[in-house]
Amino acid sequence: MKARIYIVGMGPGREEMMTVEAIQVLEQSDVIVGYPVYLKLLGERFQDKEFLSTPMKQEKERCLMCFAEALKGKQVSLICSGDAGIYGLASLMYELGREYPEVELIVIPGITAASSGAAVLGAPLNHDFCVISLSDLLTPWEKIEKRLTAAAEGDFAIAIYNPSSHKRHDYLQKACDILLASIEGERACGYVENIGRDGTRAVTCTLRELRDANVNMFTTVFIGNSGSEIMDGKLVTRRGYSI
Amino acid sequence: MKARIYIVGMGPGREEMMTVEAIQVLEQSDVIVGYPVYLKLLGERFQDKEFLSTPMKQEKERCLMCFAEALKGKQVSLICSGDAGIYGLASLMYELGREYPEVELIVIPGITAASSGAAVLGAPLNHDFCVISLSDLLTPWEKIEKRLTAAAEGDFAIAIYNPSSHKRHDYLQKACDILLASIEGERACGYVENIGRDGTRAVTCTLRELRDANVNMFTTVFIGNSGSEIMDGKLVTRRGYSI
């Protein structure tokens, strides 16, 4: 049988928000590899596993660690927050995996922040939507700008990941300025901090207010489409049923 | 205490692909409301529950049924396939809920087909992406066309829901023709049928081949961005790590 590595999306953090399948796969693993913060979120039941990690920006080394462990005959799971295939390490694993034809890769999907954050805010993504990361670590900022403009032109609802960090404290402001070139300032928006963890905080606001909102790397931002509305404190994007 | 209705995303169908939280909420419910096909997918452990349903196109009646049951003092869950907040009934519930201030609505997120289908195909959504439904039941076709064009212009990876139905057998062809106006015919694409159910089938192909693919209402379609590639049969969209 081929050696296997499971690439597991653990959702926002709380074990209850993982799928049954993700929990089963982790329980059957000998080794769980992940970024230290996510390993710490795993509950008691996984504490007999071997945990391996690498620091931030050593994602390639983290992936290679998985292949090395799998080749020792161990069952390996690589955990990512949210969904491993949405800004996670699934694609890097497939790229590196070309050198390891004897290893099979299996992605176990998880709840991404677009879903979990939307659930806290109401139903902001209940029609066609885009997901855009403002992190320019791996993407030129010009490409991010182009995508924001296209999303506004298509009247998509938008979920924004990585709206800010220490070095990029004004990126959400820059993104809102691009959107405000074609979207009215009163557009219904919202954001959620620490989804599925202690200190969850959800705020609804207008696009103009969002521009000056205090967000951080644990915030997911939602921008409504032209039909979105704030209803009793919830951000709701209609699908269009006649009621 | 306020009456509560849980709006539950059940994921693609298999119980293992539900979150622990979704299962717990259904187990605590007196009544489970849903489209008959989805109620049938629920396993043995829910068979002591009261099941209520309405046929397709009676979504409003299905939602009102939830409020009526909640007002009788029952704990109600409304189930939707995938994520209830992505083309599901969450937004309609919030709209109708304005008439029922005594009822609290709680959305429990689920694995949407963009996530679960991507996991089967490889990692097609591992960078910024759009989700677009080709169903024009509730959306004018012109708006769908506009969104396809904007998605291509922004070089987004794209997940397409509802690519076909009996009445709309040529919609994927129409969508591909719009995309082919600005995307090369060799663009890496793929599609998955019956995600998380019996008969799962995944195919990778080019955009030109996709145009003539045989898809149905249980297919989710994926279109890569300019950097996507088919690697050993998997559709992979790079995030951009240097390897």
Brief synopsis:
The first copy, chain A, has 243 residues and is α/β, with parallel strands linked by helices. Chain A contains eight helices and 13 strands.
What is the element layout, followed by pairings?
The structure is a homodimer of 243-residue chains.
Chain A (H helix, E strand, L loop, with lengths): L2 E7 L10 H8 L3 E3 L2 H6 L8 E3 L6 H13 L4 E5 L9 H8 L5 E6 L4 H9 E2 L5 E5 L7 H13 L3 E5 L9 H10 L7 E6 L7 E6 H5 L7 E5 L5 E3 L2 E3 L7
Biggest beta sheet attributes of chain A: 5 strands, parallel
Individual helix count of chain A: 8
Low-confidence stretches of chain A: none
End-to-end distance of chain A: 55 Å
Mean pLDDT of chain A: 96
Oligomerization: homodimer
Largest interface: A-B, 78 and 78 residues
Widest sheet, order of strands of chain A:
3-2-4-1-5
- Give the DSSP E fraction of chain A (strand runs of 2 or more residues): 15-25%
Question: Helices and strands of chain A: which structural class?
Answer: alpha/beta
Account of the 3D structure:
The structure is a homodimer of 243-residue chains. The first copy, chain A, has 243 residues and is α/β, with parallel strands linked by helices. Chain A has 8 helices and 13 strands. Helix content of chain A is 30%, strand content 24%. Chain A has a 5-stranded parallel sheet with strand order 3-2-4-1-5, with helices on both faces. The mean pLDDT of chain A is 96. Chains A and B meet through helix 1, helix 4, strand 5, helix 5 and strand 6 of A and helix 1, helix 4, strand 5, helix 5 and strand 6 of B. Strand 7 of chain A pairs antiparallel with strand 7 (129-133) of chain B.
